[in-house]
Amino acid sequence: MKPRESRARVDAVRRLSTAILEADLRLEEPPALEFDAGQWVSIPFGPKTVRAYSIASTPQSRKVLTLCADVAPGGLGSAWFRALKPGDEVRFKGPLGGFVYTRADPRRPLFVAEEIGIVPIRSILTELYATGFGRPVTLVYWARDPGWLAYDAEFRSLARRYPGFAYRPTAASAAGAATDGPSGLAEAVLRLVPDVAGLVAYVAGGEQTIHRVRDVLVAKGLDRKAVKWEKFW
Q1: What pTM does this model have?
Q2: pLDDT tens figures, 9-62
Q3: Sheet bearing 199-205, strands edge to edge
Q4: CATH number of 205's domain
Q5: Torsion of CA 39, 84, 142, 223, to 10 degrees
Q6: Which of 55, 63, 151, 196 is the least buried, fewest Cβ under 10 Å from its Cβ?
Q7: Secondary structure percentages of the chain, helix, strand, coil, to 5
Q8: In degrees to the nearest 10, what's the CA dihedral of 66, 71, 74, 75?
């Protein structure tokens, strides 16, 4: 879908944790937006200043988009997201981005997320299971502590309902776990992904984390081109 300038109004704002917020945006122009799970929108804050926010909702909801953000950094985008309230107008451009899962791909999908990097993956996984995806999927999800595992309850529910979905959350606060994202997530992938045969990986998080996780997977025998990524910082 070609990105377009859009206008929406805030329906609701929810706090998922101390520093993670969700906002529902009801489309006004256009009245509905087509997008692929995993894509994002761009919010303008000036002529040359924009911030990107991944869409947490699925393409099945085209009239209301849900954005999710980590507002802990405290910058321009964090301040804007914290100040959102029902009724506010939001202008954005989208959809954008190519971090999307190709359903026709015969390879076994592995999703790897660092903290707020879970947002596009949540959209992809929710869409897959809502539309009858029956193949095995693994999600390895790292956070500094369990309170930063956004959507943890949803993924645990998916794992109970769909035996083919393997959910592997890990937190740095656990005994013996690495305390930073790149090391922590790389160690988790090394431990929890024993076999990369026939695998395609989708990794979302910080740049260092993406590099470390990719290196682990390639060392295990995965083709470098089989690692897709979305950089958040």
Answers
A1: 0.94
A2: 999 999 999 899 999 999 999 999 999 999 999 999 988 899 999 999 999 999
A3: 165-171, 137-143, 108-114, 199-205, 227-231
A4: 3.40.50.80
A5: 20
A6: 63
A7: 30, 35, 35
A8: -30
Containing structural domain, residue 180: 108-231
Query: Does some domain include residue 59?
Result: yes
Q: How far apart are CA 159 and CA 145, in angstroms?
A: 21
* 3 state DSSP class of 157: helix
| Rounded Cα–Cα distance for residues 203 and 141 (Å) | 10
The verdict on 152 and 196 lying in the same domain is: yes
Domain count, the chain: 2
Check if the beta carbon of residue 197 is closer than 8 Å to that of residue 217: no
Which tens digits make up the pLDDT trace of 107-159? 999 999 999 999 999 999 999 999 999 899 999 999 999 999 999 999 999 99
C-beta separation of 149 from 141 below 8 A:
yes
